[in-house]
Amino acid sequence: MLGGMMLRRLRCVPSLVRPPLKFFSYSSSTSRSTSSAAISKAAAAGAADGLEDDEELLESVVSVRPVTFPVLLEPRVVVYDGVCHLCHRGVKWVIQVDKQAKIKFCCVQSLAAEPYLRLCGLEREDVLRRFLFVEGPGLYYQGSTAALKVLSHLPLPYSALSSLLIVPAPLLDAVYDHVAKRRYDWFGKADNCLVLNDKELLHRFIDKDEMLGK
């Protein structure tokens, strides 16, 4: 009877509500599910001690549940060098053209960029060399390919430029890398993320709250 009552009460325990999944998620290694081994151990301990109040047993079972909420990631996110004047000009141009707000942004210097870097197996230095565009699950690009993929989500005539994807990536990346290596010398570098000077753009940034807290 004790086991039956405990099972009925376990079924009545409300599950934890996860925030809406916007597109895909990067979950940590800790599972949210109740460990069957932990339940069995708690139940055995309760029986051995002769617990009369099965609510205490239920409490002991729930207390051992490891709970970790995943970091929710959004699709079509550009992760870029936020202190680069050239990069910031490019971001402002995309925001102006992208009336449907398909593309979102994140400064690589922010903490919000870390889950995207881990998902793609990249370090910050990799993104400082070539910016990152995370299009969706398993779809991420860098450098010239990332730029053309961003253009493909913009309205015509800009999306037509994505046809340059037929050009071998090494050729386009050679031009990209030439400019990227000299961008600070040619266009300058700021001390902080430049979007802080254009706060009206922050509604398109996934790290908006972090930026406003600075």
Automatic annotation (TrEMBL):
It holds the Pfam family DCC1-like. InterPro entries: DCC1-like, DCC_oxidoreductase. GO terms for molecular function: protein-disulfide reductase activity. PANTHER family: T23E23.25, THIOL-DISULFIDE OXIDOREDUCTASE DCC. This is Thiol-disulfide oxidoreductase DCC. The lineage of its organism: Eukaryota, Viridiplantae, Streptophyta, Embryophyta, Tracheophyta.
